[in-house]
Amino acid sequence: MDWKEWRRKLIEKKRKSKRSLQEKEKIEFLREICSAALSKNAQDIVVLDVRECVSYTNHIVICTGNSDRQICAIADEIERSAMKFSERPLSVEGYERGYWVIVDFVDTVVHIFQREPREFYNLEGLFMEAKRLNLDLKGSGKKEK
Question: Of these four, 11, 67, 122, 145, which has the most CB atoms within 10 Å of its CB?
Answer without folding.
Answer: 11
